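Moderator note: this is an archived Q&A kept for reference. The question asked for a predicted structure of one protein chain; the sequence and the answer are reproduced below.
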Amino acid sequence: MAKRVQVVLNESINKLGKNGDLVEVAPGYARNYLLPKKLVTLATPGILKQVEQRKEKEKQRLLAERQEAEGRKTALETIKRFTIRKEVGEGEAIFGTVTTSEVAEAIQTATSQEVDRRGITVPDINKTGFYEATVKLHPEVTATIEIQVAPL
């Protein structure tokens, strides 16, 4: 009897893999649990070919996403400086602080690109002036922008 059986996952299973992954499992586990619950299909040459095509499509999609993020990074770094107006008190101290939402809004106003505020890292800003912020556009693509805090 075979020591391991190759199967393709029909859905993600904890500690085994994600949907569409080709994995090797014990024959009893496959026969008694995974196959009756239709969590997997046995790996045949045709199914292996489908898995390869699916992986290639996914790779192409991820590459296109990354290239799109690179284009957005170039656009942000071309503009480079975004202005945020705040109410100012004594000694050029601003009331409140500059939030990531305000930075995302300034970027959207200037470039009409929507940026997720959770991907923006802003230093502590409590005076007017110029500050550096980073914008994470993709897991591998990060843009550095300059924020100018100016009085109203």
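Archived answer notes: Residues 45-79 form the longest helix (35 residues).
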